[in-house]
Amino acid sequence: xxxxxxxxxxxxxxxxxxxxxxxxxxxxxxxxxxxxxxxxxxxxxxxxxxxxxxxxxxxxxxxxxxxxxxxxxxxxxxxxxxxxxxxxxxxxxxxxxxxxxxxxxxxxxxxxxxxxxxxxxxxxxxxxxxxxxxxxxxxxxxxxxxxxxxxxxxxxxxxxxxxxxxxxxxxxxxxxxxxxxxxxxxxxxxxxxxxxxxxxxxxxxxxxxxxxxxxxxxxxxxxxxxxxxxxxxxxxxxxxxxxxxxx
Length: 247
Prior knowledge:
5-stranded antiparallel β-sheet, 7 helices, alpha+beta, Phosphatase 2c, domain 1, single chain
């Protein structure tokens, strides 16, 4: 049985008031196909949240239509979705005479794709920018594969799908066979889940165990409450988004 979910909660400003959420997390599940997308809109840009919301939907739509059967087709599907996103945003800015550009919709991107075929299970992920993806064993105590944040020249800088050189920073991975349990998170969550560029299992293991023992709805509700708690916001006041899948 497959359980999956996505949660996104807004961060807080310096006065402790809720900010407008720039993140977006979305999932799709239908029998043998599971897709999870998490995007983080740049808070420094005017429409980063709009960008992350639209990119989530474009990626899921493209992957549902193409159902990539290998690593190469998966990359092509991701690239085509990003190109579509960029073209639609640029056309909208021109047609509506908006005083903004593509860069004002900047966002990062993480995608996990799992499909069961007749003779094998396809397992791919895509990552551009910061945030992190963990593929875990059945005990949630060992990382089978980790995709770490990619930062720019400074620790608080990263790369976006709106950058001219976005293809250079798009990472496509095929996690090892059997690495099916996963969690992906934006940079508002990595301060709790990453330590010395490795999963911090004192946080990850109990979280995944709880999700494993809960329904998807109960897991999402509890996860949202935890991410929005005072303790969580004291560690990072940024928006927080998580996607997860357990087999």
